[in-house]
Structure formats: structure tokens, C-alpha cells
Design brief:
It is built from 14 helices and 14 strands. The protein has helices at about 15-25, 45-50, 70-80, 90, 100-110, 125-130, 155-160, 180-195, 250-265, 275-280, 290-305, 330-340, 370-375, 375-385, and strands at about 30, 90-95, 115-120, 135-145, 150, 165-170, 200, 230-235, 245-250, 310, 320-325, 345, 345-350, 360-365.
């Protein structure tokens, strides 16, 4: 019998689609189902990791909360992003990937039954971790406005209650690619102030922007620094998925508890991964600008190929959504037909929010296929969906 903490936690679908695509062993299959990327990590990170593999101090449990070098590099980046001084010893913990950091933070913040506000759609891995930590999700819908995403501010205000303990944000968000406007951030800040909640900010993609405005870190907003906990990683921006290195930083009072959870949960991070992560954060050329240019080119190509279909424009990140219900198909059916008849692997957004909102969409990830292979996507879709 399934234990209660797992009863409301479905899978994320990506594993099934990935396994099916792997099993097909078809070089013509477009891999749009998962967040792998063919854009290489920073050269400095690779070299530092190779060197670390032969160092005894990198083959160690210690230090439990992360190396001094990496914690200092994280804090230096946060200070540049927020203009806020952080004490790297008291306010920063290294985690075994960003999602491990999210779970550790939630375990330190939530009592069973506490509510967490999060957008709809949102990454299923975030929603499932809220539930695993005993929290209750309060989904705030994203609306399609002028071809892109906007946060429903009225629904956001209505979601706030005496039970609100955390507001979990991500901008750009996965899977939608929404980038919050200043107005949306102010509305989020108002909810945090009203409820006294923690703002748990997933910053995994914050520099992967296709808009001219720079990223706005919520800790910059008046009164939010003392309520904001930032979780980041090298997986997305630095294209270092396999390193499994992330970080959590925030006010010392909550970081003590998060550090205790970290010690109790994963214990420590990937020893040989941390030197590479530190090298990425301090590299003269981290490759982010070039990666953004390539991702935007891929996004633009898909938008052009599918311009006559209900695709929603992402303003950042590396995935986009298409409303298959508007085309008369469930996302699961659309995914199966696309896989079998179009040789395209794509994941339905079942469990990535409400059935009414997220459940309308199929996700295309453009991180792992170059433009040369994406060209002709419209013809694959037409053949599979008889459009």
C-alpha cells in the first residue's frame, strides 16, 4: 500500500517519454521531451572538474555545507544580482542540485497542511516536492495574453490565506517560460507581506532571457530581502546537468534550519562537482550569452514553424507549450501520435498544475536539438495530427 505522503504525487511523464525515445533508438527522433542540452558547459568548469577527480580533498564528505570556495562564489553572484550583502558562512548552503535545495528549504519551512502558492502550470518536480514536504499547493493560473504568458493577479490575491507559508516563484519559469514583470513581482511581494510567508525563489533559469529587460531578483524589492530564500544551480544556465550542484541562500534564521535538513537529508554534495561549479561561477566566459542566443534562435524557429497553431511564446528558459485541447486532442493523445507518426518525443503536462490549465498543454523542449534538426517540425506535426 502506498504511504500517504506519496498518494498525491504522480510521476512527471518525462521519464516515460525519455525511456520510450531511448528504446526507439531512432536517430531521426526529435528529442523534445526532457531538459538535456547539447550546448556545452563552460570550458573552465570541465577543466576544474577533471583536475578535482584526482584530488583527495574533492573525494570527501567534508565540508558538509559545501566548500568555502563555492559558497563564496555563490554569495558574490547574489550580491551582484541583489545589491545585498550575504555572509557566506551563515547564509549559504550548497545542495546536491537545485531541486534538492528546494526540498530541503520546504522541509525547513512547512508544517503539514501549510499552503504554498505556485503558478499553474509549474514544474511537476516543484509541485511534487511541496506535497512530499507535507504542503498543500494553491495554484495560481497563468493566462495567455497577446501570445505570451501573464500571471493572473486577481487569482494570486485570492490564493493568499492565513495558511500561506511559502510563495514559490520561478522566472523564467518551467515549463511555460514566463518572465515576471515588475507589476507581477510587486503583486507577489504584496502577498508575502500580507501573509508573512517565505518567498522561495527558484533561480535556475533567471539569466536565460529573450526579453530586453534584465532579470529582476525579488530580494531587490523593498522589504523582501528578509523573507526571500534563493535556490540556484549550475544545471540550466551553465549547462552542467550531470554535476548535481546547487545552492540555497537567505536569511540566517532560516538557513540554520535548512542547513540542518541538508545534513540530515543528502548529507553532502558531489565532491568533484563543486570545483567545477565554482569555476563556472567565476569564469571570464561562462557561455551564458552565447547559450541564450542559440536558445532564442531555436525558440524563434519553432514559433515560426508552428505560427498557425496555438503555441504560447516563452520569454525565457528552454521550453514552450502548445495547447492541444484547442486542436481537439488531449496532450497524451497528441504526444502518442506525434511520437509514432512524426518521430517527435514530447511530454504531456499532466500533473504539472491543474487539469483545467496545465492539463491542456504539450511541452516542446528546445535545449537539445539544433536549428538544423528543428527545421521541418511543422511538417512532422501536420503528418502526425492530420492538420
Amino acid at each position: 500500500m502506498t504511504v500517504s505522503r506519496l498518494r498525491d504525487i504522480p510521476g512527471i511523464g518525462v521519464d516515460r517519454m525519455g525511456d520510450a525515445a531511448d528504446a526507439a533508438c531512432d536517430p531521426d527522433m526529435l528529442r523534445l521531451e526532457n531538459l538535456d542540452t547539447d550546448i556545452p558547459p563552460p570550458r573552465a568548469a570541465i577543466e576544474a572538474t577533471r583536475a578535482a577527480a584526482e584530488r583527495n580533498d574533492a573525494n570527501s564528505y567534508l565540508p558538509f555545507l559545501g566548500t568555502d570556495e563555492l559558497r563564496q562564489a555563490v554569495v558574490a553572484r547574489l550580491e551582484a544580482d541583489t545589491d545585498i550583502a550575504y555572509d557566506w558562512r551563515a547564509q549559504c548552503v550548497i545542495s546536491a542540485g537545485g531541486l534538492s535545495g528546494i526540498l530541503n528549504a520546504l522541509l525547513a519551512m512547512l508544517e503539514p497542511g501549510d499552503e504554498v502558492i505556485i503558478s499553474d502550470p509549474a514544474y511537476a518536480g516543484l509541485i511534487n516536492r511541496i506535497r512530499l514536504a507535507g504542503g498543500v499547493t494553491r495554484l495560481v493560473p497563468l493566462r495567455v495574453v497577446e501570445g505570451g504568458w501573464r500571471l493572473d493577479l486577481e487569482a494570486l490575491a485570492e490564493a493568499a490565506s492565513a495558511k500561506t507559508r511559502v510563495v514559490l516563484t520561478m522566472s523564467p519559469s518551467m515549463p511555460s517560460g514566463i518572465v515576471h514583470t515588475a507589476e507581477e513581482w510587486q503583486a507577489i511581494a504584496a502577498v508575502v507581506r500580507q501573509t508573512g510567508a517565505w518567498l522561495l525563489h527558484d533561480a535556475a533559469m533567471e539569466r536565460l532571457l529573450f526579453v530586453s529587460a534584465p532579470a529582476l531578483h525579488p530580494a531587490r524589492i523593498s522589504g523582501l530581502a528578509e523573507r526571500t530564500v534563493t535556490v540556484g544551480s549550475v544545471s540550466k544556465e551553465y549547462r552542467m546537468i550531470g554535476w548535481r550542484v546547487g545552492w540555497i541562500a537567505g536569511p540566517a534564521e532560516i538557513m540554520r534550519d535548512i542547513g540542518l535538513v541538508s545534513l540530515t537529508n543528502v548529507v553532502c554534495q558531489v565532491g568533484i562537482g563543486m570545483p567545477g561549479a565554482a569555476a563556472a561561477l567565476t569564469a571570464e566566459d561562462d557561455g551564458i550569452a552565447a547559450a541564450v542566443a542559440e536558445l532564442q534562435a531555436r525558440r524563434d524557429l519553432i514559433l515560426a514553424e508552428l505560427s498557425d497553431l496555438p503555441v504560447v511564446r516563452p520569454d525565457g528558459g528552454w521550453s514552450l507549450l502548445i495547447d492541444t485541447v484547442a486542436l481537439g486532442m488531449s496532450p497524451a493523445d497528441a504526444s502518442q501520435r506525434l511520437f509514432e507518426e512524426g518521430k517527435v518525443a514530447a511530454t504531456p503536462m499532466t500533473g504539472w498544475g491543474s487539469e483545467k490549465n496545465a492539463g491542456r498543454y504539450l511541452r516542446f523542449v528546445f535545449a537539445n536539438e539544433p536549428c538544423a534538426r528543428l527545421a521541418g517540425l511543422r511538417e512532422r506535426v501536420r503528418a502526425a495530427w492530420s492538420l
